[in-house]
Amino acid sequence: MNDISRQPTDETDTDIKDVEEAWRANLVKYTPAEWLAIFPEAREFIIPKLRELEFQMRTLEEEIPKALHGAKKFEDYWFIREVIGAFQVTDLIQLKKEYYRLKRYLPQIKPMNQISQEQIERARAYPILELAEAHMGELKRSGRTYRALCPYHDERSPSFYLYPGTNTFHCFGCQKNGDVISLTQHLLSMNFVEAVEHLTI
Fold it and tell me: What is the pTM of this model?
């Protein structure tokens, strides 16, 4: 009886690789300007995403040295260092790759409604606590932070933290984080420009 579940040969594998390489070689390579022409709606998401990536990178850049320093007191420091490298450092590298990939699109994004960098900075300085008190449920103080139910996902116990000192937020449940502008976008269903204008009225 013939075995119909015959395993692929090396020759078959080579053919598949050749086809894949030919397909990749013929892919159309668009410039950032061409991508934005094809997907103009991406314009309003790029800057907020860059801000979110900046926050995540900054957090990891602060956490990694602390973790390495704290691990030195353990005998298996070398192992902990390898774990940190395999996870946190790898995550940081991936975040930076994504950040610099998106940053290539910035020169192609013309100011929308003529909002200025100064206006964006003023919006970013709007107290995140005031925004949360006006548009979220009960806030519970926890030291220098405030806890609340996360507006990004359903939960029963508060895992959403507000940091008035840095005017940012982080959810330990869904891992969503950002600043007062991105939170305004979500709570009030606004795009980036609308959120900036709302916070600087």
Answer: 0.48
How much of the chain exceeds pLDDT 90, in percent? Answer: 32
Dihedral in degrees, nearest 10, Cα atoms 96, 110, 125, 169:
-40
- Interval 66-80 mean pLDDT: 88
**Average pLDDT of 37-47?**
74
Crossing angle of helices 43-71 and 180-188, rounded to 10°: 130
Check if the beta carbon of residue 147 is closer than 8 Å to that of residue 137: no
Taking 90 as the threshold, does the pLDDT of residue 73 lie above it? no
Q: What CATH number has the domain spanning 114-199?
A: 3.90.580.10
Amino acid, res. 97: K
Q: Rounded to whole angstroms, how far apart are CA atoms 82 and 89?
A: 10
CB 55 within 8 A of CB 168: yes
Q: How far apart are CA 17 and CA 39, in angstroms?
A: 31
